[in-house]
Amino acid sequence: MGKAALRRRIALALSRSAVFAPGSARSACLCPCLGWGAWAYSSAMHVLDRYVIRQIAGTTVFVALALTFAVWLTQSLRLFDFIVNRGLPADRFLVFAGLLMPYFMGIVLPIGVFVAVLFIYNKLLADRELVVMRAAGLSPWRLARPAIIMGFIIVLVGYAISLYLQPASLRSFKDLQWQLRNDYSTVLLQEGVFSEIEDGVTLYVRQRNDKGELLGLMVHDTRDPEAPVTMLAKSGALVNGDDGPMVVMLEGNRQQIDRKTGRLSLLRFDRYTVELSQFTGEEETWRWRKPNERYMNELFGEAKSEEDQRYRPELIVEGHQRIVAPLYTLTYVFIALAWLLSGEFNRRGQLKRILLAVLCVGILEALKLSVQGLVVNMPSLLFVMYLAVLLPMLLSLYMLVFDPLRRRRGRQQNRLAHG
User: Fold this and answer.
1) Cα–Cα distance measured from residue 337 to residue 35, given in angstroms and rounded to the nearest whole number
2) Among 218, 243, 275, which residue terminates a domain?
3) Do 92 and 236 sit in the same domain of this protein?
Protein backbone atom coordinates (compact mmCIF):
# COMPACT_ATOMS: atom_id res chain seq x y z
CA MET A 1 0.00 0.00 0.00
CA GLY A 2 1.41 3.40 -1.00
CA LYS A 3 1.82 6.29 1.41
CA ALA A 4 -0.95 8.34 -0.19
CA ALA A 5 -3.39 5.41 -0.08
CA LEU A 6 -2.47 4.73 3.53
CA ARG A 7 -3.12 8.36 4.46
CA ARG A 8 -6.53 8.25 2.77
CA ARG A 9 -7.39 5.07 4.67
CA ILE A 10 -6.41 6.66 7.99
CA ALA A 11 -8.41 9.81 7.27
CA LEU A 12 -11.48 7.77 6.21
CA ALA A 13 -11.25 5.52 9.26
CA LEU A 14 -10.85 8.51 11.56
CA SER A 15 -13.78 10.36 10.03
CA ARG A 16 -16.01 7.31 10.48
CA SER A 17 -14.77 6.41 13.93
CA ALA A 18 -14.97 9.98 15.26
CA VAL A 19 -18.76 9.58 15.45
CA PHE A 20 -18.46 6.46 17.56
CA ALA A 21 -15.36 7.35 19.56
CA PRO A 22 -15.81 6.60 23.26
CA GLY A 23 -17.25 9.62 25.03
CA SER A 24 -18.45 11.37 21.87
CA ALA A 25 -21.84 13.08 21.98
CA ARG A 26 -23.32 11.30 18.94
CA SER A 27 -22.29 7.83 20.12
CA ALA A 28 -24.87 8.05 22.91
CA CYS A 29 -27.66 8.55 20.33
CA LEU A 30 -26.60 5.70 18.06
CA CYS A 31 -26.64 2.75 20.43
CA PRO A 32 -27.52 0.06 17.79
CA CYS A 33 -24.41 0.99 15.85
CA LEU A 34 -22.00 1.11 18.79
CA GLY A 35 -20.61 -2.34 18.00
CA TRP A 36 -19.65 -1.32 14.47
CA GLY A 37 -18.39 2.05 15.73
CA ALA A 38 -16.12 0.49 18.34
CA TRP A 39 -14.69 -1.81 15.67
CA ALA A 40 -14.10 1.13 13.30
CA TYR A 41 -12.46 3.15 16.03
CA SER A 42 -10.17 0.26 17.03
CA SER A 43 -9.28 -0.43 13.40
CA ALA A 44 -8.36 3.20 12.83
CA MET A 45 -6.17 3.21 15.92
CA HIS A 46 -4.27 0.12 14.81
CA VAL A 47 -3.71 1.58 11.35
CA LEU A 48 -2.52 4.84 12.91
CA ASP A 49 -0.14 3.08 15.30
CA ARG A 50 1.41 0.94 12.56
CA TYR A 51 1.72 3.93 10.24
CA VAL A 52 3.57 6.12 12.76
CA ILE A 53 5.67 3.33 14.27
CA ARG A 54 6.86 2.26 10.84
CA GLN A 55 8.02 5.78 10.02
CA ILE A 56 9.72 6.27 13.41
CA ALA A 57 11.46 2.90 13.17
CA GLY A 58 12.86 3.60 9.72
CA THR A 59 14.09 7.06 10.69
CA THR A 60 15.59 5.74 13.95
CA VAL A 61 17.56 3.05 12.14
CA PHE A 62 18.86 5.53 9.58
CA VAL A 63 19.86 8.20 12.13
CA ALA A 64 21.39 5.70 14.58
CA LEU A 65 23.45 3.99 11.89
CA ALA A 66 24.60 7.33 10.44
CA LEU A 67 25.67 8.67 13.85
CA THR A 68 27.29 5.36 14.83
CA PHE A 69 29.25 5.18 11.61
CA ALA A 70 30.37 8.81 11.95
CA VAL A 71 31.58 8.30 15.53
CA TRP A 72 33.14 4.95 14.64
CA LEU A 73 35.00 6.48 11.70
CA THR A 74 36.49 9.30 13.77
CA GLN A 75 37.54 6.92 16.55
CA SER A 76 38.95 4.34 14.12
CA LEU A 77 41.42 6.91 12.80
CA ARG A 78 43.27 6.61 16.11
CA LEU A 79 43.76 2.90 15.47
CA PHE A 80 45.58 3.35 12.16
CA ASP A 81 48.82 3.12 14.12
CA PHE A 82 48.31 -0.65 14.10
CA ILE A 83 48.37 -0.62 10.29
CA VAL A 84 51.07 2.00 9.71
CA ASN A 85 53.59 1.07 12.39
CA ARG A 86 52.64 -2.50 13.30
CA GLY A 87 51.68 -3.94 9.95
CA LEU A 88 48.20 -5.12 10.90
CA PRO A 89 46.35 -6.53 7.84
CA ALA A 90 43.36 -4.52 6.64
CA ASP A 91 40.83 -7.34 7.14
CA ARG A 92 41.96 -7.87 10.71
CA PHE A 93 41.87 -4.13 11.33
CA LEU A 94 38.21 -4.00 10.25
CA VAL A 95 37.35 -6.75 12.73
CA PHE A 96 39.41 -4.97 15.37
CA ALA A 97 37.69 -1.60 14.84
CA GLY A 98 34.26 -3.20 14.29
CA LEU A 99 34.24 -4.43 17.89
CA LEU A 100 33.67 -0.81 18.95
CA MET A 101 30.35 -0.57 17.06
CA PRO A 102 28.05 -1.88 19.87
CA TYR A 103 29.59 0.60 22.31
CA PHE A 104 28.96 3.54 19.98
CA MET A 105 25.49 2.24 19.11
CA GLY A 106 24.51 2.26 22.78
CA ILE A 107 25.58 5.90 23.03
CA VAL A 108 23.79 7.25 19.93
CA LEU A 109 20.61 5.13 20.05
CA PRO A 110 18.69 7.45 22.47
CA ILE A 111 19.69 10.43 20.33
CA GLY A 112 18.57 8.60 17.19
CA VAL A 113 15.10 7.91 18.61
CA PHE A 114 14.79 11.51 19.79
CA VAL A 115 15.66 12.86 16.34
CA ALA A 116 13.28 10.38 14.68
CA VAL A 117 10.33 11.34 16.91
CA LEU A 118 10.96 15.05 16.37
CA PHE A 119 11.25 14.62 12.62
CA ILE A 120 8.23 12.35 12.10
CA TYR A 121 5.81 14.24 14.36
CA ASN A 122 6.88 17.58 12.94
CA LYS A 123 6.32 16.12 9.47
CA LEU A 124 2.86 14.93 10.51
CA LEU A 125 2.12 18.43 11.76
CA ALA A 126 3.40 20.04 8.57
CA ASP A 127 1.23 17.68 6.46
CA ARG A 128 -1.81 18.49 8.66
CA GLU A 129 -2.20 14.80 9.52
CA LEU A 130 -2.01 15.45 13.27
CA VAL A 131 -4.56 18.25 12.85
CA VAL A 132 -7.03 15.76 11.35
CA MET A 133 -6.32 13.26 14.12
CA ARG A 134 -6.78 15.93 16.78
CA ALA A 135 -10.05 17.05 15.16
CA ALA A 136 -11.23 13.43 15.30
CA GLY A 137 -11.04 13.61 19.08
CA LEU A 138 -7.65 12.04 19.73
CA SER A 139 -5.89 13.37 22.80
CA PRO A 140 -2.16 14.23 22.86
CA TRP A 141 -1.58 11.10 24.94
CA ARG A 142 -3.30 8.96 22.31
CA LEU A 143 -1.32 10.59 19.51
CA ALA A 144 1.89 9.91 21.43
CA ARG A 145 1.22 6.18 21.86
CA PRO A 146 3.10 4.99 18.71
CA ALA A 147 6.23 6.89 19.74
CA ILE A 148 5.99 5.59 23.31
CA ILE A 149 5.67 2.01 22.04
CA MET A 150 8.73 2.56 19.86
CA GLY A 151 10.53 4.07 22.85
CA PHE A 152 9.92 0.96 24.96
CA ILE A 153 11.19 -1.25 22.14
CA ILE A 154 14.40 0.78 21.89
CA VAL A 155 14.79 0.64 25.69
CA LEU A 156 14.82 -3.17 25.46
CA VAL A 157 17.38 -2.99 22.67
CA GLY A 158 19.41 -0.56 24.79
CA TYR A 159 19.42 -2.97 27.73
CA ALA A 160 20.58 -5.80 25.45
CA ILE A 161 23.48 -3.60 24.35
CA SER A 162 24.25 -2.20 27.80
CA LEU A 163 24.09 -5.46 29.74
CA TYR A 164 25.69 -7.85 27.26
CA LEU A 165 26.82 -6.60 23.84
CA GLN A 166 28.81 -3.61 25.11
CA PRO A 167 30.93 -5.46 27.70
CA ALA A 168 31.36 -8.46 25.41
CA SER A 169 32.54 -6.39 22.44
CA LEU A 170 34.78 -4.10 24.49
CA ARG A 171 36.29 -7.10 26.26
CA SER A 172 37.10 -8.71 22.91
CA PHE A 173 38.47 -5.39 21.64
CA LYS A 174 40.77 -4.89 24.63
CA ASP A 175 41.91 -8.53 24.54
CA LEU A 176 42.76 -8.26 20.85
CA GLN A 177 44.48 -4.92 21.44
CA TRP A 178 46.57 -6.44 24.22
CA GLN A 179 47.38 -9.42 22.00
CA LEU A 180 48.46 -7.21 19.11
CA ARG A 181 50.73 -5.19 21.36
CA ASN A 182 52.43 -8.31 22.72
CA ASP A 183 52.32 -10.76 19.81
CA TYR A 184 55.47 -9.73 17.98
CA SER A 185 55.42 -12.72 15.65
CA THR A 186 52.20 -11.62 13.94
CA VAL A 187 52.41 -7.85 14.24
CA LEU A 188 55.98 -6.58 14.35
CA LEU A 189 57.49 -9.13 12.00
CA GLN A 190 55.49 -8.60 8.83
CA GLU A 191 56.98 -9.46 5.45
CA GLY A 192 58.36 -6.46 3.58
CA VAL A 193 57.35 -3.99 6.31
CA PHE A 194 59.66 -1.63 8.18
CA SER A 195 58.33 -1.93 11.74
CA GLU A 196 59.36 0.75 14.21
CA ILE A 197 59.47 -1.05 17.56
CA GLU A 198 60.74 2.06 19.34
CA ASP A 199 61.74 5.59 18.42
CA GLY A 200 64.96 5.14 16.46
CA VAL A 201 64.80 1.31 16.20
CA THR A 202 63.50 -0.24 12.96
CA LEU A 203 63.08 -3.94 12.20
CA TYR A 204 62.67 -5.37 8.69
CA VAL A 205 61.97 -8.93 7.48
CA ARG A 206 62.13 -9.66 3.76
CA GLN A 207 60.34 -13.02 3.87
CA ARG A 208 58.83 -15.47 6.32
CA ASN A 209 58.42 -19.11 5.27
CA ASP A 210 55.86 -21.69 6.35
CA LYS A 211 58.16 -23.03 9.08
CA GLY A 212 58.30 -19.63 10.78
CA GLU A 213 61.88 -18.96 9.66
CA LEU A 214 62.75 -15.33 8.95
CA LEU A 215 64.78 -14.53 5.83
CA GLY A 216 66.60 -11.29 5.08
CA LEU A 217 66.60 -9.53 8.46
CA MET A 218 67.69 -6.00 9.21
CA VAL A 219 67.78 -4.09 12.51
CA HIS A 220 68.64 -0.39 12.31
CA ASP A 221 69.31 1.41 15.61
CA THR A 222 69.71 5.21 15.58
CA ARG A 223 68.99 5.93 19.25
CA ASP A 224 72.57 7.20 19.48
CA PRO A 225 72.83 9.64 16.55
CA GLU A 226 76.61 9.75 16.85
CA ALA A 227 77.00 5.97 16.50
CA PRO A 228 74.15 4.38 14.48
CA VAL A 229 74.15 0.58 14.26
CA THR A 230 72.88 -1.65 11.44
CA MET A 231 72.63 -5.43 11.73
CA LEU A 232 71.98 -7.67 8.73
CA ALA A 233 71.41 -11.42 8.67
CA LYS A 234 70.53 -14.04 6.09
CA SER A 235 68.04 -15.79 8.34
CA GLY A 236 66.71 -15.91 11.85
CA ALA A 237 63.75 -16.74 14.08
CA LEU A 238 61.56 -15.25 16.75
CA VAL A 239 61.80 -17.16 20.05
CA ASN A 240 60.48 -16.61 23.56
CA GLY A 241 63.17 -16.59 26.22
CA ASP A 242 63.13 -16.17 29.97
CA ASP A 243 63.38 -12.39 29.60
CA GLY A 244 60.74 -12.12 26.89
CA PRO A 245 60.63 -12.40 23.08
CA MET A 246 63.87 -12.13 21.12
CA VAL A 247 65.03 -12.29 17.51
CA VAL A 248 67.87 -14.74 16.83
CA MET A 249 69.86 -13.61 13.78
CA LEU A 250 72.03 -16.14 11.91
CA GLU A 251 74.94 -15.58 9.48
CA GLY A 252 75.13 -11.82 9.40
CA ASN A 253 77.14 -8.77 10.35
CA ARG A 254 76.92 -5.78 12.65
CA GLN A 255 77.91 -2.40 11.22
CA GLN A 256 78.57 0.69 13.32
CA ILE A 257 79.90 4.03 12.17
CA ASP A 258 81.49 6.72 14.30
CA ARG A 259 80.32 10.01 12.84
CA LYS A 260 83.10 11.97 14.54
CA THR A 261 85.91 9.97 12.90
CA GLY A 262 83.97 8.51 9.99
CA ARG A 263 85.30 5.08 10.89
CA LEU A 264 83.20 1.99 10.11
CA SER A 265 83.32 -1.02 12.44
CA LEU A 266 82.23 -4.34 10.93
CA LEU A 267 81.59 -7.44 13.03
CA ARG A 268 80.62 -10.72 11.39
CA PHE A 269 78.68 -13.25 13.44
CA ASP A 270 77.17 -16.70 13.10
CA ARG A 271 74.53 -16.04 15.75
CA TYR A 272 73.34 -12.79 17.29
CA THR A 273 70.41 -12.19 19.63
CA VAL A 274 68.29 -9.04 19.81
CA GLU A 275 66.02 -8.92 22.86
CA LEU A 276 62.78 -7.15 21.98
CA SER A 277 61.92 -6.61 25.65
CA GLN A 278 64.59 -3.89 25.87
CA PHE A 279 62.60 -1.89 23.31
CA THR A 280 59.01 -2.73 24.21
CA GLY A 281 59.29 -3.29 27.94
CA GLU A 282 58.45 -6.43 29.84
CA GLU A 283 55.72 -8.55 28.31
CA GLU A 284 52.48 -8.38 30.22
CA THR A 285 50.94 -11.67 31.23
CA TRP A 286 47.84 -10.21 32.95
CA ARG A 287 45.81 -7.07 32.64
CA TRP A 288 43.10 -5.50 34.78
CA ARG A 289 39.74 -5.25 33.05
CA LYS A 290 38.28 -1.76 33.01
CA PRO A 291 34.71 -1.12 34.24
CA ASN A 292 33.21 -0.82 30.74
CA GLU A 293 34.52 -4.31 29.88
CA ARG A 294 32.78 -6.05 32.78
CA TYR A 295 29.42 -7.74 33.11
CA MET A 296 26.97 -6.73 35.82
CA ASN A 297 27.92 -9.55 38.21
CA GLU A 298 31.55 -8.46 37.96
CA LEU A 299 30.68 -4.80 38.61
CA PHE A 300 28.62 -5.46 41.73
CA GLY A 301 30.48 -8.61 42.87
CA GLU A 302 33.21 -8.89 45.47
CA ALA A 303 36.64 -7.43 44.74
CA LYS A 304 39.05 -10.10 43.51
CA SER A 305 42.21 -8.01 43.32
CA GLU A 306 43.81 -4.91 44.76
CA GLU A 307 42.86 -3.00 41.62
CA ASP A 308 39.21 -3.99 42.08
CA GLN A 309 39.28 -2.65 45.62
CA ARG A 310 41.04 0.54 44.58
CA TYR A 311 38.59 1.28 41.76
CA ARG A 312 35.50 0.05 43.59
CA PRO A 313 33.59 3.39 43.21
CA GLU A 314 34.17 3.37 39.43
CA LEU A 315 32.86 -0.20 39.19
CA ILE A 316 29.70 0.60 41.19
CA VAL A 317 28.99 3.77 39.19
CA GLU A 318 29.48 1.89 35.90
CA GLY A 319 26.96 -0.75 37.02
CA HIS A 320 24.31 1.84 37.84
CA GLN A 321 25.08 3.73 34.63
CA ARG A 322 24.28 0.55 32.68
CA ILE A 323 20.86 0.48 34.37
CA VAL A 324 20.14 4.18 33.87
CA ALA A 325 21.49 4.75 30.33
CA PRO A 326 18.71 2.96 28.34
CA LEU A 327 16.04 4.89 30.29
CA TYR A 328 17.24 8.12 28.68
CA THR A 329 15.58 6.86 25.50
CA LEU A 330 12.13 7.15 27.09
CA THR A 331 13.01 10.50 28.62
CA TYR A 332 14.06 11.93 25.27
CA VAL A 333 10.93 10.53 23.59
CA PHE A 334 8.67 12.14 26.21
CA ILE A 335 10.52 15.46 25.87
CA ALA A 336 10.02 15.48 22.10
CA LEU A 337 6.34 14.56 22.42
CA ALA A 338 5.67 17.04 25.22
CA TRP A 339 7.00 19.99 23.23
CA LEU A 340 5.34 19.03 19.93
CA LEU A 341 1.92 17.76 21.09
CA SER A 342 1.09 19.94 24.10
CA GLY A 343 -0.53 23.31 23.62
CA GLU A 344 -2.09 24.68 20.45
CA PHE A 345 -0.83 23.82 16.99
CA ASN A 346 1.03 26.63 15.27
CA ARG A 347 0.31 26.96 11.57
CA ARG A 348 3.59 28.82 11.06
CA GLY A 349 5.66 25.85 12.18
CA GLN A 350 7.12 24.33 15.31
CA LEU A 351 10.72 25.54 15.03
CA LYS A 352 10.71 27.20 18.45
CA ARG A 353 9.42 24.08 20.17
CA ILE A 354 11.88 21.86 18.32
CA LEU A 355 14.78 24.07 19.43
CA LEU A 356 13.54 23.98 23.02
CA ALA A 357 13.35 20.18 22.91
CA VAL A 358 16.89 19.97 21.49
CA LEU A 359 18.10 22.35 24.20
CA CYS A 360 16.54 20.19 26.92
CA VAL A 361 18.20 17.05 25.56
CA GLY A 362 21.54 18.83 25.23
CA ILE A 363 21.34 19.92 28.88
CA LEU A 364 20.49 16.37 29.95
CA GLU A 365 23.44 14.94 28.01
CA ALA A 366 25.81 17.37 29.71
CA LEU A 367 24.19 16.64 33.08
CA LYS A 368 24.56 12.90 32.54
CA LEU A 369 28.31 13.17 32.04
CA SER A 370 28.72 15.56 34.97
CA VAL A 371 26.70 13.43 37.36
CA GLN A 372 28.67 10.29 36.52
CA GLY A 373 31.96 11.98 37.40
CA LEU A 374 30.44 13.54 40.53
CA VAL A 375 29.10 10.25 41.89
CA VAL A 376 32.51 8.57 41.50
CA ASN A 377 33.95 11.08 43.96
CA MET A 378 30.82 11.21 46.16
CA PRO A 379 29.10 7.78 46.22
CA SER A 380 26.41 9.10 48.58
CA LEU A 381 24.94 11.03 45.63
CA LEU A 382 24.21 7.86 43.66
CA PHE A 383 20.47 8.63 43.70
CA VAL A 384 21.17 11.73 41.56
CA MET A 385 21.89 9.44 38.56
CA TYR A 386 18.32 8.13 38.72
CA LEU A 387 16.85 11.53 39.53
CA ALA A 388 18.53 13.05 36.45
CA VAL A 389 16.66 10.67 34.14
CA LEU A 390 13.34 10.17 35.99
CA LEU A 391 12.53 13.79 36.89
CA PRO A 392 12.60 15.12 33.27
CA MET A 393 10.61 12.06 32.22
CA LEU A 394 7.87 12.75 34.79
CA LEU A 395 7.75 16.47 33.95
CA SER A 396 7.38 15.68 30.24
CA LEU A 397 4.72 13.08 31.03
CA TYR A 398 2.80 15.68 33.03
CA MET A 399 2.92 18.13 30.12
CA LEU A 400 1.72 15.44 27.75
CA VAL A 401 -1.18 14.15 29.87
CA PHE A 402 -2.50 17.32 31.51
CA ASP A 403 -1.46 19.76 28.76
CA PRO A 404 -0.86 22.83 30.98
CA LEU A 405 0.06 24.98 27.97
CA ARG A 406 -3.39 24.54 26.39
CA ARG A 407 -5.17 25.06 29.71
CA ARG A 408 -3.29 28.31 30.33
CA ARG A 409 -4.14 29.47 26.81
CA GLY A 410 -7.81 28.62 27.43
CA ARG A 411 -7.89 30.58 30.71
CA GLN A 412 -6.35 33.59 28.98
CA GLN A 413 -8.98 33.47 26.24
CA ASN A 414 -11.79 33.20 28.82
CA ARG A 415 -10.49 36.24 30.69
CA LEU A 416 -10.33 38.21 27.44
CA ALA A 417 -13.85 37.07 26.51
CA HIS A 418 -15.31 38.15 29.86
CA GLY A 419 -13.09 41.17 30.26
Assistant:
1) 32
2) 275
3) no
Residue 265 belongs to a domain: yes
pLDDT tens track for 270-320: 988 877 665 555 545 567 888 889 999 989 988 888 888 888 889 999 999
Q: Which residues contact 28 (CB under 8 A, 6 or more apart)?
A: none
Helix H or strand E segment including 221:
strand 214-221
| 39 and 139, same domain (yes or no) | yes
250: containing domain: 194-275
Do 130 and 42 sit in the same domain of this protein?
Answer: yes
Share of the chain above pLDDT 90, in %: 29
Largest CA distance in the chain: 114
Beta carbons within 10 angstroms of residue 215's beta carbon: 14
Higher-pLDDT residue of 23 and 216 is 216
Closest CA to 158 of 296, 371, 323: 323
pLDDT at res. 42: 60
Q: Are residues 330 and 227 in the same domain?
A: no
> Residue 263: helix, strand or coil by DSSP?
strand
pTM across the whole model: 0.71
pLDDT tier at 23, thresholds 50, 70, 90: very low
Spatial CA neighbour of 184 closest among 152, 164, 151, 208: 208
Do 15 and 157 lie in one domain? The reply is yes
The more confidently predicted of residues 388 and 133 is 388
User: Does residue 136 lie within any of the structural domains?
Assistant: yes
Q: Look at residue 362 and give its three-state secondary structure.
A: helix
Q: How far apart are CA 387 and CA 367, in angstroms?
A: 11
Same domain, yes or no: 26 and 147 = yes
Spatial separation of the C-alpha atoms in residues 238 and 186, rounded to whole Å: 10
